[in-house]
Amino acid sequence: MQTKARAIIALALLVSLISFIKFSQCESSGWATPDQYIHACYSDIPALYGERGLSKGDWAYSNGEDSVEYPVVTGAVMWTLAKITPGGESATKNYYYINVFFLALLFIFIAFIVFKIRPEFAYLTPLAPAAIASLYINWDLWAIISMLAAIYWFDRKKLDVSAIALGLSISTKFMPVFLLIPIALIFLRRNQISGAIRYLIIAAATFTIINLPVYLTTPEGWLRFYQLNIDRGSDWGSLWYAMSSLGINMPNTNYLSVLILLAGLAAIAIYALELRNIPSLAAMSFIVLATVMCASKVYSPQYVLWLTPLAVIALIDKRDLHAFWIWQGAELIYHIAIWQHLASVSGAKFGLPLFGYALITLIRIAATVCLIAIFIRRGLAGGTQGPLSHKSLREFLFESSNAYP
What are the domain boundaries of the chain? Predict the structure, then answer.
């Protein structure tokens, strides 16, 4: 293994431990409220262990409306790790420790995959402060690693394997389903309609194979995730929640969020079709998922875990590093803001008022939009004349050879 790869792995291991220390404050208090918000160490892991029947050994989708609110692979991971958790008075802590161990391993592998895709900037993934601060909030890393694997294999023309990985990722957190849009556009630019259909069929078959047994045996529990996302109103971190908090009440936010999302995706489609050469999936993924998150009815603090590696693999010029760090700074400020606001509404003697939280939410979204704009501008300019050679840039951004006969 290369020395640089070893350094990335060692750095990822180190920051995993640093993040564990950051979250460890809540263990001593048993994740009590408002302490878990004051110290910004809240995690869904111990909370849902008891609330979703996992502590009793219940299957993740067998409790109807009290089933886990995640897609099948995440639920299976939650249930499996609960089954191997030692019981007793420390069962909740043991469950948390086991999950943290696997999440740390996933983060290390994610850092390595980013190194394989973008070795020039791979150090940014383990050094991103907002990502480190959010590492153990949820189970998102289980979906992120398969998503990155799908991107890695797609840009290397291993399309069948990429489709399987994407189907797995969609079955884990569902958000990667939006990557089918840039994938379809890339196939269209390559004039490979049959290849696009094949890719979609493989990804859909993978999703079906994983999900169908759960749907047939526990349909109500399986549907809970999808129904929750359809019915939910504007929630934490979203543009819509921030605007309503500032007194700007907009009717039919469900329709408005969908409308803005469709407009954003249409603009991305035009951008992808206007590029002089065919973009890579690595170059498009951040733009797509960041647009989805900005338009969504919820923009959770741990979403930075999705966007950080995607931003790193989208970077093609050192001149854009300042924008990356400004965006990370905005994410870190938001990370502090959300927990201090929740502390203020859950009985703490101090915290961040709603007005301040709403403003910081808008700043966070604005920083994300700015980074999207910078990547789009760089793509339209044809890349960089900086330290990357013309050949390496072409290999990264533009992959036009046929993968399917």
Answer: 3-397
